[in-house]
Amino acid sequence: MARAIEWLDGKLRILDQRKLPREQIFADLDNYQDVVLAIKEMRIRGAPAIGVAVAYGIALAASSIRTTNKDDLLAQLNQVMQAFAASRPTAVNLFQAINRMKKAARGDGVAEIKKSLIDEAKQIHKEEVSATEKLSQLGAELIKDGFTLLTHCNAGALATAGYGTALGVIKAANEQGKKVSVFVTETRPLLQGARLTTWELMQEGIPVTLITDSMAGYFMKRGEIDCVIVGADRIAANGYTANKIGTYTLAVLANAHGIPFYVAAPTTTIDLSLTSGYQIPIEERSPEEVTHIQGIPIAPAGIRAANPAFDITPNQYISAIITEKGIMRAPYTEGLKRIGPRFLL
How many other C-beta atoms can be found within 10 angstroms of the C-beta atom of residue 171? Predict the structure, then answer.
């Protein structure tokens, strides 16, 4: 499958995720403003992928700043970082990447700082690829031969700039020779499940069935789902997890039916600065995403619509959190504190 994000010849090449699955269109971004816009418009999406894109975007900005004064460079970079910080509020990987790039902006001169930032962005990307590969192998241990899984939204290579998280676990189980199949919720309002997750699973040759978001309970009641696995955009110190809107509903349903509910995410998604998931900022997106599908109106003109992009799943509904440093189970606080990154503390 084509890479969602690449650094090529001093530019950031992205696969435009708004166009999938109908078209595979790549865009070469040569200035940080275009990277910010691509994140806001969800041409780049998924918490780990956003972090990688932000790192490259900051490096791109540094390369284009024309100054020989180190302090002037750092001042301009600070404005760039503020622009990225304002692009999307929920995915913590974005802020982890900003803080890492801020620390990497060191050197005796402008040229040295610019090189350091490119090197750090590449390192962040490399680490995300490695982390998703490791967590996928660990998570595959939880998946038995013959399992049918349910996943929500998209947490594959498209969302991680690497191997994948929730879909990475499924892919790893499949590569181990386990016969698995997957139910995929369409994931309203932007249909990441219908457009992206089904496409990725079909690319891997994994049997997949698309359902509407409201069908999950029906198939759980029929005993057709063995476990639920999702990604995450931010995990608080107590294990409360922010993920695509509708995740909380699935967690409650899974709990009611005695079905394991797993969260798969790299440690860059852990935010130890927040003691509770209810402190996680929830992005509110345009109501038009609810009243329209790809520009086509589906509701009466003038109707009010709410559009929170994420919800919070309390830790009592989470059977395990799968990371590259191990599989965490309740109680989560000590385990997450031991493995979580310190960039936001």
Answer: 22
